[in-house]
Amino acid sequence: MDFGDILDAWDRQTARALGNRRKGVSRNGATRQEPSTPKPPDKNHQKPNPLAAWLQVHEVYDKDAILDAAKERPWERRRRLLHARADAVIDLHGLNRDEAWNALDLFFLNCRRQGFEKVLIVHGKGNHSGSVSVLKQLVKTFIETCPFTGESGHGHTAAGGTGVTWVLLRDRRTHKGYES
């Protein structure tokens, strides 16, 4: 008998002993009763943490935890978004001031809810507006007053130049904006 045979015999004996214990048979062959063990609590019915519930209801965020989880620092996000394509585009050609303002308000609310990070506004260069570009000035005012707009700028010459404005939206996890 070599070592391999001894090891195989040991494995068979151990497997038999484990099988008997699972069936409720003791080593001497008598059946035994397993003590009743309490069931672990169901994971779906765990007690909620009151502090976590309050923080969730009142939309308080730990920006450091979010940054650690996302592993993207603000300057890295900015650099990535400056070179990224826009998630959504709105064209304001042919709208008056009130229509354009309402369209922008609805557009930014929808973009915010969908989690977009960069949007593009096509307002034109104002060639038919006289001395001042009406829609361009309106877009600038809207961006300054909207609580969840961040950095903005004009597109490249090939993409419309001063006739388009790109806007980076603030990160919705770290900035609470109005939801009207």
Write the topology of this structure.
Blueprint (H helix, E strand, L loop, with lengths): L2 H21 L26 H8 L5 H8 L3 H9 L5 E4 L5 H18 L3 E5 L11 H12 L3 E6 L9 E6 L11
Parallel strand pairs: 1-2
Antiparallel strand pairs: 2-4, 3-4
- String of helices and strands: HHHHEHEHEE
Average predicted confidence as pLDDT: 75
Give the N-to-C terminal Cα separation.
Answer: 83 Å
Q: What is the strand arrangement across the widest sheet?
A: 1-2-4-3
Helix content: 40-55%
Overall geometry comes to: elongated
Which fold name corresponds to the CATH topology of one domain?
A: Ribosomal Protein S8, Chain: A, domain 1
Major beta sheet summary: 4 strands, mixed
Task: Report the strand count.
Answer: 4
What do you see in this structure?
- The chain has helices spanning 3-23, 50-57, 63-70, 74-82, 97-114, 134-145; strands at 88-91, 118-122, 149-154, 164-169.
- It is of the alpha+beta class and 180 residues long.
- The protein has a domain at 74-169: Ribosomal Protein S8, Chain: A, domain 1 (2-Layer Sandwich).
- Helix 5 (97-114) crosses helix 6.
- The longest helix is centred in the N-terminal third of the chain and has 21 residues, at 3-23.
List keywords for this structure.
180 residues; Ribosomal Protein S8, Chain: A, domain 1; 42% helix; four-stranded mixed β-sheet; disordered C terminus; 6 helices
